[in-house]
TrEMBL record:
Transmembrane spans: 16-40, 52-71, 91-114, 134-154, 174-196, 217-244
Membrane topology: Multi-pass membrane protein
PANTHER family: 12-(S)-HYDROXY-5,8,10,14-EICOSATETRAENOIC ACID RECEPTOR, HYDROXYCARBOXYLIC ACID RECEPTOR 2
Protein name, UniProt field: G-protein coupled receptors family 1 profile domain-containing protein
GO cellular component: membrane
Coiled coil: none
Family listed: Belongs to the G-protein coupled receptor 1 family.
Keywords: G-protein coupled receptor, Membrane, Receptor, Transducer, Transmembrane, Transmembrane helix
Domain G-protein coupled receptors family 1 profile: 31-278
One Pfam match: 7tm_1
Subcellular location: Membrane
Gene3D superfamilies: Rhodopsin 7-helix transmembrane proteins
Length: 314
């Protein structure tokens, strides 16, 4: 009876998660399409030193493109695709998306940190962000960290601690877990450090210099919020899953797996939160976006206010 109840709860969990992803996809696709349109056709990112921001948009599109497949599997009460090739491609894309998003967000935060805390010194990040070649190199460097998801000797999603068939299998699983945790924990420590230093710098500055500093604080704070909301919960859940799996606590593992998958679905909402970072980090992009998509709304609002004023005068 408990097994039947557990299976029923499993089905309900993944049905709910599939509809959460439907909402993320429904909101994320038009939002990211509009952002992409602005960056290419209106803002011209290559002229406005927004190459890193554009790469975050590309990374978000990788994630949005994976969601329909995840939705299909979850609605059929499957954690992953039964097609091994498709499963590994999905994992590869998701790992690549996460690594790229984190890499470019960290680079942007470091750029603001050096501009504020070490103003006047040579800012190597500023030199990097002007060069498209650097972005290509970052993507290439991410590939070796993502390749372990393509090795055929591990079970999709998580196999560490379950079966140790070969030495290569064990090394591959260990390396993948190290990459997973280090790409969250190390950047998070860097972000917190940058945020604290920028905030302290803001307190010491005079009134006339605070506008630029406040914008820098908004940027690094927004990145920390995105990390805390999207990436930290699933990282903690994965650590818990590994712990109960190594202890061979099967009942606890069944629950931990569902919590981990649920928090991974929560992490997909970074494709909705990243546009907030675009606004905080680049006021020019925000102005172009608003003037493009809210022009009719603003004109209508202005006309209504003018009508009200005319009526009040008369």
């Amino acid at each position: 009876l408990s097994a039947i109840e557990g299976g029923h709860f499993f089905d309900i969990t993944y049905q709910v998660l599939s509809w959460v992803m439907v909402g993320e996809f429904t909101l994320g696709l038009p939002l990211n399409l509009s952002v992409l349109y602005i960056f290419i056709f209106r803002y011209k990112f290559w002229k406005n030193k927004a190459i890193f921001l554009f790469n975050i948009v590309v990374a978000d599109f990788l994630l949005v493109g994976c969601l329909p497949f995840k939705i299909h599997h979850y609605q059929h009460n499957l954690r992953r695709s039964e097609d091994t090739v498709l499963c590994k491609i999905m994992l590869f894309m998701l790992f690549l998306n996460r690594g790229a998003s984190i890499a470019f967000l960290i680079t942007m935060s470091l750029d603001r940190y050096f501009n504020v805390v070490h103003l006047g010194r040579r800012n190597f990040v500023k030199v990097f962000k002007k060069s498209p070649q650097i972005s290509v190199i970052i993507w290439i460097l991410l590939l070796p960290l993502t390749i372990p998801t393509m090795v055929t000797t591990f079970e999709c999603c998580n196999s560490h601690g379950r079966v140790k068939e070969t030495y290569l299998h064990d090394v591959t699983d260990t390396f993948r877990e190290i990459v997973f945790f280090s790409q969250i924990i190390i950047p998070y420590i860097i972000l917190v450090y940058c945020t604290v230093r920028i905030v302290n710098r803001l307190r010491k500055k005079t009134v006339g210099e605070k506008t630029k500093l406040r914008r820098a604080v908004c940027l690094v704070t927004s990145v920390v919020v995105v990390f805390s909301f999207c990436f930290l919960p699933c990282t903690i859940a994965r650590a818990a899953l590994l712990f109960v799996r190594l202890k061979n606590w099967q009942d606890a593992e069944n629950i931990a797996v569902q919590w981990y998958d649920a928090l991974m679905v929560l992490s997909y909402s970074d494709c909705l939160l990243d546009p907030l970072i675009y606004c905080f980090s680049n006021s020019g992009f925000k102005d172009v976006y608003i003037s493009t998509f809210y022009r009719l709304f603003c004109l209508d609002k202005i006309l209504k206010l003018q009508t009200i004023n005319i009526m009040n005068v008369s």
